[in-house]
Amino acid sequence: MVKVQNKVNTVIFHPDHKSHIVLDKEACAKCEDKPCLRMCPSQMFTLSGDGKEVIYSHEGCFECGTCYVICSHLSWNYPKGGKGVIFREV
Ligand code: SF4
Ligand code: SF4
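# iron/sulfur cluster complex -> structure
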């Protein structure tokens, strides 16, 4: 049986210093459902300690585009210059 951990180990991240996804903080503050918290397969979206702010971290992004599809308020681009995720064949 193929384990998820084995699959995850086939992924390498070369994150850029600058995030390729930028949130609209005002829109996030007004967003009641916050689907990004549930839909991102890499769980890059989290809530701040006080639960008031959505925080995004780009370092482990799979570039799947799910957040781009579910949210019209964020700015989404592929990482530049060969940065980002690399999927290895096993
Ligand atoms: S779904 Fe979009 S607007 Fe709503 S909290 Fe997430 S990033 Fe912000
Ligand atoms: S592109 Fe996919 S992995 Fe990256 S932040 Fe959006 S939903 Fe998460």
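# post-check
The CA atoms of residues 14 and 84 lie 5 Å apart.
The first strand starts at residue 11 and ends at 14.
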